[in-house]
Amino acid sequence: MTEPELDVHSEPGDLTEALRTDVRSGFSAAQKWLPAKWFYDARGSELFEEITRLPEYYPTRAERETLDREAAEIARVTGARTLVELGSGSSEKTRLLLDGLRAYGTLKTFVPLDVSPAALTEAVKAIQAEYPGLDVRGVVGDFTEHLGLLPGQPPRIVAFLGGTIGNFLPADRLKFLRSVRDVLTAGEWLLLGTDLVKDAGTLMRAYDDAAGVTAQFNLNMLRVVNRVLGADFEPGRFAHESYWDAEHEWIEMRLRAREDMTVHIPGAAIDVRFDEGEYIRTEISAKFRPAGVAAELAESGFTLERWWTDGQNRFGVSLAKA
Ligand code: AVJ
């Protein structure tokens, strides 16, 4: 089968440049950090898929339970002709929405957008094969930058699932929600998945599984920096940690230096010194309360029309109208 054509909004050169910028600023900060989007090269996307099947990682299953139960209702309420999925990855849960919208009869176009061309290519191929007649337009891009360029006829529904909105710091989250609102026309839709605050043990285990898959996923970011910027990180000299920040109500993923070292990053023209015990923050994954989600959607110009959770109240799904 021929490779599907993707609409590429970020060229490989842009990605290198963006990583260089993030590495330079993140590694010169007092608390070293890198943005979570750098997990997702081909291997990172595969490792994330593996995470979604782990017994400890409940968000995927909890969200799927709700989407499975409510897909027909989402189709009925929205009558969407276009489904846009931000950060779609393998588009696995998307099938529930596609099935619901196709059965209702309104859906014409599916627009998956992802930073990983590899993950997107596989997803587009699979969806095209499974949904003949559906117009599938894969977009390679960063949803914080490439929202204005999305194709498809209204009414559109933008799905931002999995709790990925939790990767934004609160101020960036509002900016992002407003930017989604701005590209939509009044009467179009946002479907938003948010992981909910719960006991610290459940949260910590979800980000530090017994099989060590999340550790490999976390360490993969160092491999990405090595490959793209020619750095000489030795992943074995860093330890994976998950940390529940009870004040901010977010999980942090960290890579802690096991010893003193200097890492060379020629592609960013810097050497970075690590003291033993120092860590890089690689992700925040915010957890939400229902009232907080409602307030942030209202503040961003959306009207919350439906709110659902799974049977154990672990994960929230909002359907909001622009
Ligand atoms: C894909 C951002 C929703 O925050 O739970 C999984 C990524 N990080 N395990 C999350 C992730 C560690 C995931 N999101």
Draw up the topology in text.
Elements: E1 7-8, H1 12-26, H2 42-51, H3 59-78, E2 82-86, H4 94-104, E3 109-114, H5 117-130, E4 135-136, E5 139-140, E6 156-160, H6 170-183, E7 189-195, H7 200-206, H8 213-229, E8 238-245, E9 250-257, E10 261-265, E11 270-274, E12 279-286, H9 290-299, E13 303-309, E14 315-321
Parallel strand pairs: 1-5, 2-3, 2-6, 3-4, 3-5, 6-7
Antiparallel strand pairs: 7-14, 8-9, 9-12, 10-11, 13-14
The chain binds N,N,N-trimethyl-histidine.
Radius of gyration computed on alpha carbons: 20 Å
Number of helices: 9
Which of globular, elongated, flat, extended, rod-shaped describes the shape? globular
Give average pLDDT, whole number: 94
Bound molecules: N,N,N-trimethyl-histidine
Instruction: Please report which band the strand proportion falls in: under 5%, 5-15%, 15-25%, 25-35%, 35-45% or over 45%.
Output: 15-25%
Assign a percent range to the helix content.
Answer: 25-40%
One letter per element, helices H and strands E, the order comes to EHHHEHEHEEEHEHHEEEEEHEE
Summarize the structure.
It is built from nine helices and 14 strands. With 322 residues, the chain is of the alpha/beta class.
Provide keyphrases for this structure:
322 residues; alpha/beta; 9 helices; 14 strands; 24% strand; binds N,N,N-trimethyl-histidine; MeTrfase_EgtD-like; EC 2.1.1.44; S-adenosyl-L-methionine; protein methyltransferase activity
Structure description:
This protein is of the alpha/beta class and about 325 residues long. It is about 35% helix and about 25% strand. It has 9 helices and 14 strands. Strands 1, 2, 3, 4, 5, 6, 7, 13 and 14 form a 9-stranded mixed beta sheet that branches. Strands 8-9-12 form a 3-stranded antiparallel beta sheet, covered by helices on one side. A two-stranded antiparallel ribbon has the order 10-11. The longest helix is centred in the N-terminal third of the chain and has 20 residues, at about 60-80. The chain starts with 6 loop residues before the first strand and ends with a strand. The mean pLDDT is about 95. The chain binds N,N,N-trimethyl-histidine. N,N,N-trimethyl-histidine binds next to strand 12.
